[in-house]
Amino acid sequence: MESKLKCLPINGTDYIEFYVGNAKQAAHFYQSAFGFQPVAYAGLETGLTDRTSYVLRQDKITFVLTGSLTPDSEVAEHHKLHGDGVKVIALWVDDAKQSFEDTTGKGAEVDFEPRTESDQHGEVVRSSIKTYGDTVHTFVERKNYNGTFLPGFIAWQPEYKPEDTGLLFVDHIVGNVGWNEMDKVAGYYRDVMGFEQLISFDDNDIGTEYTALRSKVMANDNMWIKFPINEPAKGLKKSQVEEYLDFYIGPGPQHVALATNDIVATIDALRKRGVDFLHVPETYYDTIIDRVGEIDEDIEVLKKHHILIDRDDKGYLLQLFTKPVEDRPTFFFEIIQRKNAISFGKGNFQALFEAIELEQQNRGTL
Fold it and tell me: What angle do the packed helices 349-363 and 240-248 form, to 10 degrees?
């Protein structure tokens, strides 16, 4: 079987759709806390009777917050089981029909077949396939469309428009899967979508005295789409992946990494807006220069904002992780700034796990 699908070019992440308990309030949160800008709306006023959606954007990042209008809709069932979480990872492609045929021809399960949606701004072709858990990939072809988002949506123009926080694009999306499922899911991305394995980590790389996980990072050929896939590994106590699986009730996206060109300014703005981040102990910075070498940023400034640093053979990266952004200890965000590095912060795993274990201990789930 071919390792690459030459006929499946992906231009980037088109949008990420969250199924949530209250879309209107969730939209307000992402405006207020993260600085996303209002774009479009669909609901009763546009003819929908089972759901309502608010579309938000910051630079190249588009979020869709969708809530149910009825107790028995697909959205309601998903939210009842999983809580707030990512349902759709939409991929921007040149040909949604061809992408669908290529992937289903290689074994992908159908979510919905290619369909053309149109309005006065043109037409969009979408198709969709299933992936791990209840998550789907929707292929979006929009070369003949110049509207704000998709047909069926109207412009959403509230007076409330907080400033952005410097977020630019989706760097990667991490998925958590069950025991011994990582290789199967990684194989899906390799054999069905033509992705290749960028890097892998085992429990010797990602673990502490108490908990561990394994991970494989799958990426497409232009590196614009990167999906690390995590599975639990045996440890003395319950790992973060096990906790996620218990509360999400199955596999799903664990976090979305959002890129910035100035992580200090972005983290500072997010903290001032009430976003909570994992705690990084000051001792982390005692030997950091010995480990990562000289960097452009002032270590004392990074220490003040609790920003993690790591280096690979291409450069270095700066990163920090939020606490979960909903009631269940499931989905969170990573803020990342790459200074030519292509890795995923392996040198930070120890500090990250210890910070997460502290949160688990506080929740009584470790």
Answer: 50
* pLDDT tens-digit readout, 221-232: 888 999 999 998
Structure-token pair, residue 326: 């909903």
> Whole-prediction pTM value?
0.93
Could you give the C-alpha distances from 185 to 13, 56, 130, 195, in angstroms and in order?
19, 30, 12, 11
Query: Do 196 and 344 fall within a single domain?
Result: yes
CA–CA dist 260, 307 (Å, integer):
13
> pLDDT per residue over 265-306, tens digit each?
999 999 999 999 998 888 888 888 888 888 999 999 999 999
CA–CA distances in Å: residue 52 to residues 25, 74, 128, 134: 12, 12, 20, 20
Please answer whether residues 105 and 192 qualify as being in contact, where contact means their C-beta atoms are separated by less than 8 angstroms. no
Q: What does the angle CA 324 – CA 210 – CA 238 come to, to the nearest 5 degrees?
A: 50
State the total domains in the chain. Answer: 2
How many CA atoms, within 13 angstroms, populate the side-chain half-sphere of residue 196? 10
CATH number for the domain that contains residue 231? 3.10.180.10
pLDDT per residue over 131-142, tens digit each? 999 999 999 999
Contacts of residue 85, defined as CB under 8 A and 6 or more positions apart, other chains included, come to 18, 19, 78, 248, 252, 253, 326, 330, 331
Domain that holds residue 40: 10-155
In one-letter notation, the amino acid at residue 76 is: A
